[in-house]
Amino acid sequence: MSSELDEIQAIFFEECAEGLTTAEQGLSAMAAGDVSPGVIAGVFRAVHSIKGGAGAFGHAALTAFSHRFENVLDEVRADRIPATPAITAVMLTAFDVLSDHVAAAKGTAPVPNDAAALAALDEILATKGAAAPAAAPGPAAPAPVAEPEADDFGFTPVAAAVEEFDPFGFEPVGVALEDLDAGEDSDWTVRFGPSRAALANGGEPLLVVREVEHLGGRVVDVDCSALPGLRDLDPEDSYLVWTLSVPGTVAENDIADCFDFVSPDSVIAITRASTPAPEAAPVAEVLPPPAPQPEPLPVHELIEQVQAVAAAIVHAPAPASPAPKPTEAPRAPAEPAAQTIRVDLAKLDMLLNLVGELVIRGSILADRLSPQDQQRVELPELARLTREIQDNVMSLRAQPIKQAFSRVPRMLRDLSAETGKQVALETVGEMTEVDKGVIEKIGDPLTHMIRNAVDHGIESPDERVAKGKPVEGTIHLSAEQKGARIFVRVADDGKGIDRARVRAKAVEKGIVAADAVLSNEEIDQLICAPGFSTAETISNISGRGVGMDVVRSNVEALGGRVEIGSVPGKGTTFTMILPLTLAILDGMVVRLAGQRYVLPLAAVVESVKPDPGQVRPMSPTSEVIELRGNYLPVKRLTDVFGFGGCGKRAPEDSLVIIVESEAGHVGLMVDTIEDRREVVIKSLDQNLHPIRGLGGATILGDGSIALILDVEALVGTTASASHHALKGLAA
Amino acid sequence: MTSIDMPGERKIVTFSLGKQMFGIDMKALIEIREWEEPTPLPGVAPYIKGVTNLRGTVVPVVGLAERIGWTPSEVHSRSCILVVNIGGNQCGFLVDEVADIVLIKAEDVQPAPDVETGENVITGLVQITARAADGATEETGTMVSLLDLNTLSLTKNMDLAA
Fold it and tell me: Would residue B1 count as lying in a domain?
């Protein structure tokens, strides 16, 4: 029982999260100058639905605050208060407090102090209310709710609950504003009884009912009381009257439109539940015994069957009592076209795993069959279907990275308030789609990177002016997909990494030896070392010396890596390079020292069988290949991996695979190419830990394991060297 | 063959590494597999022999003898891999020979004397009576070192290194 309630609560919080996202997007759009009615209404709806749910679950503080917020939004929506930038700014602050309230209701944060935000909201209402008399009583109305909320939490649940559970009771006390509100809230009740003429004209009641259902309505009751005994039944007459409930958010005209083609002599009544509908009570009472009392004739059973058919039109999930459901009102029936269901992520993961197994089994099967059998129609068809299933399952998990980015604007507002630094945000590529698992895991690293950029990167306004930079700092947040990797960048235009200081600090903390020779890149990497922080004073924001360390370990746990670029005086760029998906890869299977490896096909440019002399040593430890007049570096993977024990293979007995990387084209020397296939990525770090140079492992058709190569890591010499050095130091 | 777990009693799997007998908690054991050459990994500690495929999951295989400081095991016909669950992660241990599954009492376990300077992988020592395979051997006590699997966790090690 209580677990059921918990589940419903969980859904409520999910909806809150969605509502907050919607509201934030809307408010951001308003801040950017888009004050169209649609945008404002979107914000209003979002806040309103949070309020509704909060009331139902007795989150008094949240209800009270969202209520006051909603009042202002409502006035703005009704154009009684202009959406000026100043007012939008107040609403953005109010939004932040609202998010905190949601977190508090969830129990993940303390109840915020909302006095300032409330005062600002009230002031808007009060000042604009003077100009527009209609809104004048506005601020007065919420007072009884809000006042106890401010200082006495024990008392409010009652007030809030009463308001929400019994909006009609609250109604008489309410003023114009509340009227509007409740009217918006309550569902439409539609009674529909087609006349005989309507049926004679070929009207099909079912189609009309369907149309109403399409608007989000549903059949609450079918009145069969007029139905005569079978003996007296006139098949051409109409006996049934349907009662439908339509969410209050649907416009009356839209409902009326459904009945456009029904003969006017039919019963069509559209009423708001709030206006004490004479039907409402009887309906609720009639429903529990849905069978009225027809004459107990021999045809009794037949009639029951007729009723059963009629009742079948009533939707199965029709609630037993339609009246007490104010919380369900904002179920967003606005876009009936895009229907969604919520699915537990664990179920999707399970599905993804199973499909992965299916793919592997499929290739095992293909391997076991003779070549003639492999060409049979069934097998390619099966493979195609499997791949389609896989693609679809993958797309279920793909989400725009916007979800991870959406928390940034708010963070920046908080940070600016705390530090007094002015920061503008530029976002690019937020629609890039990434696996949900990746999105969830980059939240923390992203937070740390942004904090770091504001706290350490961007200078104070005075400093910026002195340096001839714009007063407002800029953080550029971008996401882009390159091959099978996703690049998330946080770039600031601040002062860059102070390498001398970083080095000094690292020496002081014993992270590096005082006489260590470090390149600039190596010094930059030091800021990711555990326990490193150069902040002079430990601030609230960063400086506890855990931030960048967390970034690196989180990103590496995902099979990605962090790159740092910094230009003193110009700014710093952090790049998280992440796998696009945690699931499949189009790969080339190569053989190397008796083992099989998979190279991501996305990185492969071409493969070359070198002629004698085409690969030449450039230094004792490096080689180049001459390709159409260009010299490209060549790496022997056996050397990179330290498998070089068995003597060097002559280049002409090997293959050089030219791969594309951040560092340009590079040749990788392998023994042979074996196959090209899609492989399911199995993470190594699930049971082990990430290994530099490997992107994971996969299981081949014969059940053996092949390691997946991470081209960027293999090729990036300097980065990898410093990385190894650092790992050694850190350990 | 089902037996009811008595309080204070637990089952351990005993196995040999060289001439030493070791034991791990039966509850942690997932399965015992025949030795099969794992796929070697580059750039890892030498005691990590590689990874193997355990019904679709990539599981690392650790040379247990090397890991706890003994001479590396040589693979022979009775070598096998104990696949265990350590805090939700799976790991395979190469051992020389699996001996038995025995029931031990908590009061029979002696804490390991603190002699080692480094990490202590042995939680306790217990004397068990070897079951005579041929029936001829008289009862002799054998010392079994109980291993602390958490210390052997690969993922935990990673946390320290990173």
Answer: no
The tens digit of pLDDT for each residue in A397-446 reads 788 888 888 888 888 888 888 888 888 999 998 888 888 777 877 888 88
Asked if residue A687 and residue A676 are part of one domain, the reply reads yes
Under a CB-based contact definition with an 8 Å cutoff, are residues B42 and B55 in contact? no
What whole-number distance in Å separates Cα of residue A416 and Cα of residue A451? 10
Nearest partner of A382 among A401, A368, A363, A367, judged by Cα:
A363
Exposure of A284 in the CB half-sphere (CA atoms within 13 A): 11
Tell me how close the Cα of A19 comes to any Cα of chain B, in angstroms.
36
| Distance between CA atoms of residues A34 and A38, nearest Å | 10
Domain that holds residue A301: 186-328
Q: Measure the CA–CA gap between A208 and A192, rounded to whole angstroms.
A: 9
Collect all residues from A whose CB is shorter than 8 A from any CB in B. Answer: 353, 356-357, 360, 530, 552-553, 556, 595, 640-643, 682-689, 691-694, 696-697, 699, 703-707, 727, 730-731
β-strand partners of B98: B15
Q: Give the number of domains in chain A.
A: 5
Entry pTM: 0.45
Other Cβ atoms closer than 10 A to A416: 17
Tokens describing residue A541: 């924001």
φ/ψ of A618, rounded to 5, equals -100, -35
Q: What percent of chain B has pLDDT over 90?
A: 12
Residue B114, domain member (yes or no): yes
Domain boundary among A279, A295, A328: A328
Range of the domain at B103: 9-161
The answer to whether position A684 is within a domain reads: yes
Q: Is A569 left (phi over 0), alpha (psi -120 to 50) or beta?
A: left
Angstrom distance (rounded) from CA B53 to CA B51: 7
Q: Is the pLDDT of residue A318 over 90?
A: no
> What does pLDDT average to over chain A?
73
DSSP-based three-state secondary structure for A295: coil
User: Domain for residue A395, yes or no?
Assistant: no
Kindly state whether residues A437 and A419 are assigned to the same domain: yes
Domain boundary among A137, A164, A184: A184
Find, in chain B, the residue whose alpha carbon is nearest to that of A555: B162
User: The domain spanning residue B73 has which CATH number?
Assistant: 2.40.50.180
Quote the ipTM score: 0.79
Residues 4-43, chain B: which have Cβ within 8 Å of A?
38-43
Give the C-alpha separation, B10 to B62, whole Å. Answer: 25
Domain count within chain B: 1
Sort out which chain B residues have CB atoms less than 8 A from A689's CB and list them. Answer: 154-155, 157-158, 161-162
